[in-house]
Amino acid sequence: QHARSGHRTAPKSDNVYLKLLVKLYSFLARRTDAPFNKVILKSLFLSKINRPPVSLNRVGRVLSQKGAADKTMVVVGTVTDDIRLLDFPKATIAALRFT
Question: What per-residue confidence (pLDDT) applies to 99?
């Protein structure tokens, strides 16, 4: 009996931009030793239900850590607005969607 692997190897979505990201990160995960690229690639394969949204409040908390202000934050999912947040630091964020 053939044993199947239980994880996805490609996204189910037909979104061309998602497929471009998968192509880029699969190349990076294969060619570099950085585990970051493998983590991003795995989370690009996740279904919409298993990709929880990230609030601006949480993004601000991560950016307030030492040395995180000048880096690019990558969110594989949706970044949602938080009306409780009055001021937000300048940030560079890459995400699949903003709402």
Answer: 93
Q: Which helix (H) or strand (E) holds 43?
A: helix 35-44
Q: Which residues in the chain land under pLDDT 50? A: none
Q: What is the pLDDT of residue 9?
A: 86
CB 45 within 8 A of CB 7: yes
pTM for this model (two decimals):
0.74
Q: What is the pLDDT of residue 28?
A: 95
Domains of the chain: 13-45 (no CATH), 48-99 (3.100.10.10)
- Exposed/middle/buried for residue 76 (C-beta within 10 Å: 0-12, 13-18, 19+): buried
